Amino acid sequence: QAAADVDLGAAILARADELPRLRSVLVSVRGELVAEHYVNGASARRPANLKSASKSIISILVGIAIDQRYLAGVDQPIAGFFPRYFVETGEDDKADITIGDLLSMRSGLESTSSRNYGAWVQSRDWVRYVLSRPMVDAPGGRMIYSTGSTHLLSAILTRATGTSTLAFARTHLAGPLGISLPAWMRDPQGIYFGGNEMLMTPRDMVTIGELYLRGGALDGHRVVPESWVDASFTPRGRSRFSGRQYGYGRWIRQL
Prior knowledge:
By secondary structure, this protein is of the alpha+beta class. Helix content is 39%, strand content 11%. It contains ten helices and nine strands. It has a three-stranded antiparallel β-sheet, with no helix packed on it. Strand 8 and strand 9 form a beta hairpin. Helix 2 (54-67) packs parallel to helix 7. It starts with a helix and ends with a strand.
């Protein structure tokens, strides 16, 4: 069996070398890093761009903020965080959007991803741009994947905690886990990008994975409520493109 495992591992790494967009392969077994392989300029110490996996980190931070009572919960309407923007829109249906709707990509707002992404990130006010999108479904309705929804969550964290998303993440997530979290891109108003461009080393990504595999606690230290881990993996919507289910800031599938 050991020889077979070695052969399988070698085959996986050989295949990895053939994938031009792949940068690293790490294998953790019961909390122990047993394999580590870097290609295409990556290294153990070099932070990688998480791209849309950043949405899962924002979801973790929202769960921590709810646990620490900075936020009332997933049913809390978002209008109170953006009164000026909501006065501008004058659309009553948008006032029903909740934190949970943003987490599950069911805000009802037109997406700012895909073909709309470029215009959004080139706008002068990202929050205003997201909230000014037309409603294409009711809040809590069908899933509409949109990076703008997660950016609104970063803006909400900033307003609710009185500190930046980066500072909150370093204090309540990175610090307790003993991992690093470099600063990443911010919008024109200084809000850290929620949903893209976050930076983390592959080893630190493994630590985040282990945290959730262990129900939100690592090395005897509770970082995220176990109930939030469970809620994050509860299906809330389904992509009409891939058919995959979505929870709170993360895709769900059975392997």
